[in-house]
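Researcher: Last one for today. Full complex below.
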Amino acid sequence: MADVTYDGATRIYPGTEIAAVDSLDLDIADGEFLVLVGPSGSGKSTALRMLAGLEFIDGGSVSIGGRDVTLTPPQDRDIAMVFQNYALYPNMTVAANMGFALKQRGIEKEERARRVREAAKVLDLEEYLDRKPKNLSGGQRQRVAMGRAIVREPQVFLMDEPLSNLDAKLRVQTRTELAELQARLGVTTVYVTHDQVEAMTMGHRVAVLRDGKLQQVARPRDLYSTPANRFVAGFIGSPAMNLIDVDPGNGPLQLGTAPITGAPASGTAVGTVGVRPEHLRLGSTGINGRVTVIEELGSQAFVHVAIEHEGRDEVLVVRDEGETDIQRNDNVQVGILGPCHLFGTDGERIDQ
Amino acid sequence: MSTERSQIVGQSRRSTIILGLAAWIAALLVFFPIFWMVLNGFKEEIDANSSPKLIFDPTSDRYTEVTTQTEGLLGFQEAFTNSFVIVAISTLLVLIMAIPAAYSLSIRPIAKWRDVLFFFISTKFLPIVAAILPLYIIGTRYGLTNSRIGLVILYTAMNLPLAVWMLRSFFSEVPKELVEAAQIDGAGIRGQITSVILPIVAPGIAATALLCVIFAWNEFFLAVQLNSVDGSTVPIWVSSNVSTRGNFLAKLSAASTLATLPVVIAGWAAQKRMIRGLAMGAIK
Ligand SMILES: Nc1ncnc2c1ncn2[C@@H]1O[C@H](COP(=O)(O)OP(=O)(O)OP(=O)(O)O)[C@@H](O)[C@H]1O
Ligand SMILES: [Mg+2]
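Model: Here's the assembly. Have a good evening.
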């Protein structure tokens, strides 16, 4: 087990100009479950592959357990990786797949079999040990891929969207199991996903990437309550935070007709106001609006309300009680309950 | 639901039958000369040369004739031994060289791999007739004419470009993640090739080896030019049964049938390997 450090790590793919991962600085503590999240093409996989040794590091360095591994080949990094498509060896049985790394390290046959059996027991794979991967279901293959990683007892687990090939229900179930397993084994884990719900539910800390640049690293609740910039604010949370552009220097700060409290000291130009759906309420006072869409989820409902803001149309998403009796085209008032987030014209958070 | 299971939805039964029939006719047309050759080998010379007859009294005399050794002439046994040795060694050498080459052109492509690939195939642009004189001169100087070694070298060179091309395309189909997984699991280049890549590309290797065997086995031009006295191969033995004095069609057919057999057996063996390998499939 070990801590992991990215120190200004940069990857520029040959034939491209822009860095896929741009001077990434990240410290991951021993035993931590860190999730890398971001939209498609943001460099999550690249960052992970740099740690694995599968991508050349063009600048900066990466170290595992205090050892600089920037130039160390993957064989010698003592890491285990779970691939998105699992990458199970098709010609080997489940047992051979799981034991392959041990065999490469020259571990005795009996010892190998014992450790494979142990891992298989943890993952409920014992009855499949003699099967070939092609005779397994998607969920079973996923577990074999996990098993291949855990028998190694490596310094770090790397996982690149390991749940994305599972159906929704299995994904939620496996998510919990995986988080539990990681906590039990206590192995430092770097986990890549583009699913912010996965990131929020599994990660001890979450690192948000965009265009190869690290936006913010924080505990899930901090990421949610104090997003560092407009991008993180819009990316984390489902449904997304309402982000309304405001014209800076136009008298008091307002959302529609409602004043916004806690405005910053004068001189700081506010570019965007953000407010989460649960911090808005439909009531008898507030911003006038008209209901355009109602997403009824049973326990709660998300109501889209068209409002007029600075002379143009905007839509606010408001969380309401489930089984709401509001109808489309109803005229409603939206009140602001909770904190608003303010972002400067450059998108950075303005502390209030 | 009365339609057959094997039938594709929407395809009428009639067009299925017509297509099937066309395939059979094409296959039979291609196969017919071989069938006729086999039949002729069991006939008397007189029957083989007269009007075609399907019903006849089969005899194995022609086979006895072609396989009995005549003093001073190229014998059946000698030719087959030469061919077996030359084909086996040259095919083995081709694979030993082509597998690493294919690896470095596909799995971890070297710089300018396209140019290298083109360079390989460009060696096949030269007609072999154009090279025969220098080959002959070099061969005689180093004592490689009328020897198995000479043909082993030439057949290896002849089949290598093709094998590299074929293997490269098979290797390219190995999912990148598998090799990466093997790397992370601690396998070096040799481990990656033997434990992960080779089992997956085994059908491709079988197909490549089969083609090399066929080409080397049937090669005539180089053999007859360079090894006409010693180290002669099966094609030369077959042609030695062509006589200017009289027509010996049945005998020639018997010799040709014998010459074809090893290739057919090799093909059958490779096919079994190929199908077994393909059935292994399924990456995800
Ligand atoms: N082999 C490559 N050669 C050139 N550019 C690449 C290569 N691999 C990735 N890229 C580019 O690098 C950037 C980051 O890619 P990466 O695969 O890390 O994204 P990602 O965050 O994992 O996205 P996704 O969620 O779609 O998997 C992208 O713009 C991509 O186009
Ligand atoms: Mg990715």
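Confidence is low (pLDDT under 50) at residues 279-284 of chain B. The CA atoms of residues 88 and 213 of chain B lie 7 Å apart.
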